[in-house]
Amino acid sequence: MKAHLTYVGKGVLHVDDDYSAVKLQKLKTGERYTVNITLINDYLFHKKLMSLLRFAFNFTCTEYDFYRNTTEQFDIFRKMVTIKAGYFNQVFDLDGQSFTLEAKSLNFEIMPAFERYQYFEAVLNYLWGSSLFMDADNKTLLTLKGFDTWIKKNVETKNVQ
C-alpha cells in the first residue's frame, strides 16, 4: 500500500489527499505495521499531476454513468490515461502473436525532471484533445487550461530541458 503523507512534527504524519485517506482507513487500530518512508522528488509537481488526474477522473465520473468514483476505478483510469499519453509497454502473449498494452510504472524518485514534465504534458495533451471534455462547460475548460499554464510556467522557471 502506498499513501502520501506529510510530516508535521513530533512524530505525526498527516494524510495529504482523499486517495491516501481511503487507503489508510483499511488499517486496523491497535495493529502494528512496518512502514518504508520515501521522500517524494518534486512533491509539488507530483501533487499537481495527481490533482490533474483526479480532476479529469471526477469530471468523467459525473459525465459518464459507467464510471464509479472508487479508488480502484481511479487506478484503472490513471493507467488508461498513461497509456493514451504514450507511456506504455507492449507485453506479448505466450504465442508471440498478440500483445496487450500496460501502463509504464513511473518512478518519480529516479525519473529526471525533464521526463516528469514531458509525462505531465503528454497527459495534459491527451486530456485536452480527447473527447472526454467535449461537452465541458467553460469553468471546467478554464480549470484544465490552468493546468496547462502551470506546467508551462514551471518548465520555464525551473529551466527544465
Overview of the molecule:
The protein has 161 residues and is mostly helical. It folds into two domains: 1-37, no CATH class; 41-157, no CATH class. It is built from five helices and four strands. It has helices at residues 18-24, 43-63, 71-84, 113-129, 138-157; strands at 5-9, 12-15, 88-92, 99-103. A two-stranded antiparallel sheet has the order 1-2. Strand 3 (88-92) and strand 4 (99-103) form a beta hairpin. Helix 2 (43-63) packs parallel to helix 4. The longest helix is centred in the first third of the chain and has 21 residues, at 43-63. It is globular, with a radius of gyration of 18 Å. The protein starts with a strand and ends with a helix. The mean pLDDT is 82.
Largest sheet: 2 strands, antiparallel
Shape: globular
Q: Can you tell me the number of structural domains? A: 2
Record the strand order, biggest sheet. Answer: 1-2
Summarize the topology.
Blueprint: E1 5-9, E2 12-15, H1 18-24, H2 43-63, H3 71-84, E3 88-92, E4 99-103, H4 113-129, H5 138-157
Antiparallel strand pairs: 1-2, 3-4
Helix pairs in contact: 2-4, 4-5
Could you list some keywords that capture this structure?
single chain, globular, two-stranded antiparallel sheet, 161 residues
What's the gist of this structure?
This protein is mainly α and 161 residues long. It has helices at 18-24, 43-63, 71-84, 113-129, 138-157, and strands at 5-9, 12-15, 88-92, 99-103.
